[in-house]
Amino acid sequence: MPVTSLLVVVGCMLASLIGGFLYFRRVRINRPPIGVVNLRDALILVGMLIVMPYLYLALPLVVVTALLAVIVLTALFMTLEPLVSNRPMLWALCLGAVAADIALALSRGVKSESFLLFNNLVLCVVVIGAANLWAQSGMKAREIAVLAAVLTCYDFIATWQLHLMTEVFLRLGQLPLVPVVAWGITDPNTSLRLGLGDLLMLTVTPLVLRKAFGRRAGLVALGSSAAVLATMLALMTAQVITGSVPVMGVLGPMIVAQYWYWTRATGTERTTREYLRAEPLRENLRAEPLTAS
Q1: What span, in angstroms and rounded, lies between the C-alpha atoms of 79 and 94?
Q2: Cα end-to-end span (Å), the chain
Q3: pLDDT (tens digit, 9 = 90+) per residue, 137-167?
Q4: How many CB atoms within 10 Å of residue 54?
Q5: I need a surface site. Which of 130, 152, 158, 174 has the fewest CB within 10 A?
Q6: What pLDDT is attached to residue 206?
Q7: Which of 194, 186, 190 shows the shortest CA–CA distance to 127?
Q8: Cα separation of 69 and 293, whole Å?
Q9: Which DSSP string do the residues of the chain spell out, in sequence order?
């Protein structure tokens, strides 16, 4: 049923948003030594996000599957490492999740509900970890606003003008570990999809705004983004909106507008040091300190 697709995808969206927000305040991720994320890093991220769809289309499916497996395994390990102290158990969980995803795809099919449910869960964990890596690495609100603005333009071109994202979704939809939260894809009238990149931007923005401008800014970003995207998905379910929709075309301007508002309301965004001084984090047994920028 269309309503089931809506509930599942919106539920995954809320799980990533709320899970990312709670993780941000309770868990300090063990980051690689990448330093503070700056504007140059944000532009590199944009370049990677632009190039990846073309790689997905150009590479053989077996290579794409291997690439997705490495990305997902790395993200799961990074996300769960501060939470699982036993290293063999940690590896077993991460490798087991990747293996189970592939096994379900091969045995039940990539369109089966069992595969989609498990794959959606894995992607939520991946997004929570990736969003926290960006936010806890010192990404500033300015960088997230620039990233959102560029991706808005790119999404309009790639989705509506070139139909690139539609081609990517169709090709990756044949594989395990597909980077799309989806449900009901056996029927075009009930299918609903949300790309991993959109979900990541949706999840990381409240974290960065929370760090930069305070708890209220983070909660406003979380609530407004969730409400707008849930409305978009509901309109798509009701077929008021049809075809592929550039999600960043709506979320991007919202992110830029919130950055503009909070910058003027507060005067300036906080550094990581100022954020930690104002809002000390709860203790985490395996936590490493955030880099003060």
Answers
A1: 10
A2: 48
A3: 888 898 899 889 988 888 887 766 667 777 8
A4: 11
A5: 174
A6: 96
A7: 194
A8: 33
A9: -HHHHHHHHHHHHHHHHHHHHHHHHH------S-----HHHHHHHHHHHHHHHHHHHHS-HHHHHHHHHHHHHHHHHHHHTTT---HHHHHHHHHHHHHHHHHHHHHT-TTSHHHHHHHHHHHHHHHHHHHHHHHHTT--HHHHHHHHHHHHHHHIIIIIIS-HHHHHHHHHTTSTT-SEEEE-TTSTTT-EEEEHHHHHHHHHHHHHHHHHH-HHHHHHHHHHHHHHHHHHHHHHHTTSS-S---THHHHHHHHHHHHHHHHHHHSSPPPHHHHHHHSPPPP-TT--PPPP-
- Record the tokens describing residue 268, joined without a space: 């300036």
Residue that is written with structure tokens 């705004």 in the block: 209
Look at residue 36 in the predicted model and tell me its pLDDT: 59
